[in-house]
């Protein structure tokens, strides 16, 4: 969602006549679009701002802005700690950026504009960075209040975009050459509950799947508590909906899941996984795990390890718990030392990396469809693209393949990517 917001910010700047340059030194305006989900992202903001301070001192005409979730949650503190920041804007008023820039140009003071609600998403107002694959938000905000999570406080309550503008926007994207869309929401399964259109998430997926020329539909994130058999059926029935599900588990311990306010049990999660495994051919599951939630004990961590070994996700995004001010978990007793949490985290990483490697090896010798995104950032003699399940594949090929879906025979597997040979 943060990346999509950056595309919106770029749209509004381009409308105002700005163009992208390659370094801070060349720019007239610098915007940092922040994430607040973990403390590390916050700290990084202040690190970046520290570096920009000298530049600002030498170039008084430079405008420095901070937007996004950290701006939303601690806008005034950013102004106080970094008075050289010109504009702070929140998550609900990105469309106001052009007028904030005008105000700044007309006066010398610093501006902080943060709203507590509002909904200014207009789907056609985003500057698409990737020409073949587009992010499309369908529901913004979250009603779940998982006890560790800051998102409901910085993104507000769930608001779905109406189905017709979503369909029209994707039709337009496809006519411009987009082959793949990723439907975005903190919880896509809640889509439509706040509207009276009769279109829920499975129904929306069907409508989008009917769009001619759209090769791949991805979606994220799904909350296990709202997973329905109908959704699994739609994925199974439609060829252009990917067989990849990102389903955050967070913890494998029922006691911790309760403390996290996740509203499902490990048994519920396993039921969904079994349903996916038995219904969808070539399925792929990825997940998110938090290690070291307040009060998590060794036996809780062992429950997470147990479920990780049983589910065998293609990939898990793992995080050490990070207290977020204002969330209910931030006030819970947290006696386990960070050193111990790091040991658990490394243990989990080792096991999961091995599972990812084993799962990737299952693709050896297979021919898979890859949407080619460009040259590999690590090796510019190789092209890079993604399989349906989002796994990166590298291969040698011609520039003309970029933006196409090609068949690749997989020859080598690593934990996080595959490589192979183009066969058409
Ligand atoms: N600490 C650590 N990880 C977190 N996440 C969300 N909030 C926190 C936190 N306070 C993780 C969850 C979520 C992912 C996007 O970030 O696993 O699914
Ligand atoms: Fe955060 Fe939970 Fe909402 Fe996900 S579902 S954004 S973890 S509160």
Give the class from helix and strand content and strand pairing: alpha/beta
The CATH architecture of the largest domain comes to: Alpha-Beta Horseshoe
Question: Count of DSSP E strands?
Answer: 16
Dominant shape: globular
CATH fold annotation of the largest domain: pyruvate-formate lyase- activating enzyme
| Helical coverage, percent range | 25-40%
Task: Please specify the SSE layout and strand pairing.
Layout: H1 2-15, E1 29-34, H2 39-58, E2 63-68, H3 69-81, E3 87-89, H4 97-106, E4 111-113, E5 133-140, H5 151-155, E6 159-160, H6 163-175, E7 180-185, H7 201-209, E8 216-220, H8 229-237, E9 244-246, H9 254-259, H10 266-279, E10 284-291, H11 298-311, E11 315-320, H12 338-361, E12 367-375, E13 383-386, E14 392-396, E15 405-413, E16 417-422
Parallel strand pairs: 1-2, 2-3, 3-4, 5-7, 7-8, 9-10, 10-11, 14-16
Antiparallel strand pairs: 5-6, 12-13, 12-15, 13-14, 15-16
Residues 37-38, 148-149, 248, 250, 288, 290, 319, 321-322, 324 line the site of 5'-deoxyadenosine.
Tell me what the structure shows.
By secondary structure, the protein is of the alpha/beta class. It folds into three domains: 2-113, Methylthiotransferase, N-terminal domain (Rossmann fold); 133-361, pyruvate-formate lyase- activating enzyme (Alpha-Beta Horseshoe), CATH 3.80.30; 367-423, OB fold (Dihydrolipoamide Acetyltransferase, E2P), CATH 2.40.50. The chain has helices spanning 2-15, 39-58, 69-81, 97-106, 151-155, 163-175, 201-209, 229-237, 254-259, 266-279, 298-311, 338-361; strands spanning 29-34, 63-68, 87-89, 111-113, 133-140, 159-160, 180-185, 216-220, 244-246, 284-291, 315-320, 367-375, 383-386, 392-396, 405-413, 417-422. The strands form four sheets. A five-stranded mixed barrel has the order 12-13-14-16-15. A four-stranded parallel beta sheet has the order 1-2-3-4, sandwiched between helices. Helix 11 runs parallel beside helix 12. The longest helix has 24 residues, at 338-361. The model has no long low-confidence stretch (mean pLDDT 95). The structure holds 5'-deoxyadenosine and iron/sulfur cluster (SF4).
């Amino acid at each position: 969602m943060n990346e999509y917001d950056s595309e919106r910010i770029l749209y509004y700047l381009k409308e105002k006549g700005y163009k992208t340059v390659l370094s801070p030194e060349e720019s007239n305006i610098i915007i940092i679009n922040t994430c607040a989900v973990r403390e590390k992202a916050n700290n990084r903001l202040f690190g970046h701002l520290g570096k920009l301070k000298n530049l600002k001192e030498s170039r008084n005409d430079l405008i420095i802005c901070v937007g996004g979730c950290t701006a939303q949650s601690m806008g005034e503190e950013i102004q106080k700690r970094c008075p050289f920041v010109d504009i702070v804007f929140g998550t609900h008023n990105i469309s106001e950026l052009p007028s904030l820039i005008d105000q700044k140009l007309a006066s010398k003071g610093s501006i902080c504009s943060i709203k507590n609600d509002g909904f200014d998403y207009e789907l056609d107002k985003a500057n698409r960075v990737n020409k073949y694959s587009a992010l499309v938000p369908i529901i913004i905000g979250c009603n779940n209040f998982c006890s560790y999570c800051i998102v409901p406080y910085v993104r507000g309550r769930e608001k779905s975009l109406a189905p017709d503008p979503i369909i029209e926007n994707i039709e337009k994207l496809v006519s411009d050459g987009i082959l793949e869309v990723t439907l975005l929401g903190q919880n896509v399964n809640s889509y439509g509950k706040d509207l009276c259109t009769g279109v829920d998430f499975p129904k929306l997926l069907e409508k989008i799947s009917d769009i001619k020329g759209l090769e791949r539909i991805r979606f994220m994130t799904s909350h296990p508590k709202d997973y329905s058999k109908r959704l699994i059926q739609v994925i199974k029935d439609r060829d252009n909906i990917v067989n990849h599900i990102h389903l955050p588990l967070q913890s494998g311990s029922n006691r911790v899941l309760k403390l996290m306010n996740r509203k499902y049990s490990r048994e519920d999660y396993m039921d969904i996984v079994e349903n996916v495994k038995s219904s969808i051919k070539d399925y792929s599951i990825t997940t998110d795990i938090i290690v070291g939630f307040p009060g998590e004990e060794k036996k809780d961590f062992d429950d997470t390890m147990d479920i990780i070994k049983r589910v065998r996700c293609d990939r898990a995004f793992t995080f050490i718990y990070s207290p977020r001010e204002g969330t209910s978990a931030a006030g819970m007793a947290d006696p386990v030392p960070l050193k111990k949490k790091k040991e658990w985290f490394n243990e989990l990483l080792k096991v999961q990396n091995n599972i990812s490697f084993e799962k990737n090896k299952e693709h050896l010798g297979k021919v898979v469809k890859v949407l080619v995104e460009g040259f590999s950032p690590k090796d510019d003699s190789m092209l890079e693209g993604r399989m349906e399940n989002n796994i990166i594949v590298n291969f040698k090929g011609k520039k003309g393949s970029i933006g196409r879906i090609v068949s690749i025979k997989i020859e080598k597997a690593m934990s996080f990517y595959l490589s192979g040979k183009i066969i058409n």
